[in-house]
């Protein structure tokens, strides 16, 4: 924990700085991160769910803006209180916003199927609201359990599974987008690296994030003069975007929430496991902040996420709030308290005035991608930098379920797109889609792609990574009783489908993936046997730390 002090610790008269020069860097970095997520979210609502603009810009986005403003203001206040309590001016507020994984889950697993089934996007919207309604209460209740879980779980396991998320679902997409348009992506990435890694200062201390975005815009718009069209921007697109201008404030949607209860059976199947996912993710992110020097109370963080998500839901927002990965990154670039509150104000302006589509038409998304890659790099590195070096193998073990989940997502997306294209050109009859997909998946092992292994290992990846990482740490430390306890927890979680399964339940009475659950139980019993009967005879009393590097 950081001991950097700029005041007298514990003095009630200490007044933390509300804004520092570094807050500009963090604001442009985090603000663009939030902007990208809002642009993606808007695209999902308009082009995937086919929701009318009156619903998207008049109801959903204003409610989302209110939720995110409450969240960012609360975490700015929490950071102020921590700075005041410790007498430090280097406290960084926790970043927060719409949960990105859940943004896609609630869209494709809840709202889209119900919209297609009923032919009514309003029904899909109501179902999404109910999904968030239940998740909010899971977060608020779980907030009182989470501190205990943090105490018994090794830091390498918490940060290792978080690193898995950052390497796969945070870093890979922006990295790939950069190389799709390298003339913009790589140039902007170099601008960011020079400042945030290399310490290079730009003229008049202009934030690196702003410099990168400005250079990206210049390249994108300048390329249009030569007919290259880098970044996909056009004057016509800007003109069309202005059609979304207007002023809308949140309107209560309590009736829509309760009308969605007719889909409760479908909703609970995913709301419960993803509520638990939220608990673990929030714990990981609080642990990450503590490793960077800022210790926040887990219970208050989780209950705040649940409370603001519930408010957003009741006002019409079908997306849940979450503490974001990235606190160490924003802190490293100078973010303190003000960047969080400023982002909240920005979100209200964007969502209540309907100008998100205008920004999308002006700024190439590829200019923002390097900022997300930078955050992913820092989080992945933090897992190794703030834990004992001998725990490094456990961190790598915690990464593996996320690699499996990411690879499976790529395969599933490719198969879905291929089958859809085949139907579009008339090369595949609708009643043959299921059979063709099953045959394609069955043929993958012959090509060296172990699809079923990806499916099982990647199921519930954040929980699987945490359990595997904890087992790895305790085995390295030769604490076989605790290793056995986590293996047994893995057996229980797997039995009910929270890990390594496709759905919550007990299958045919033997669990969702009974073979994996049984294997965890056998491992748990084996660790206990080693502790009781053979720990001393199996190895030396003080084994060499793994990955020991010989001195030169």
Structural class: mainly alpha
- SS field, number of helical segments: 23
Q: Can you tell me the overall shape?
A: globular
Order of helices and strands: HHEHHHHHHHHHHHEHHHHHHHHHH
Q: How far is the first residue's CA from the last residue's CA?
A: 31 Å
Mean pLDDT: 84
In terms of per-residue confidence, which ranges show pLDDT below 50 for 5 or more consecutive residues? 1-11, 547-552
- Percent of residues in β-strands: under 5%
- Helix amount, in percent? 55-70%
Largest sheet: 2 strands, antiparallel
Side by side, the strands of the main sheet go 1-2
Number of strands: 2
Which value, in Å, is the CA radius of gyration? 24 Å
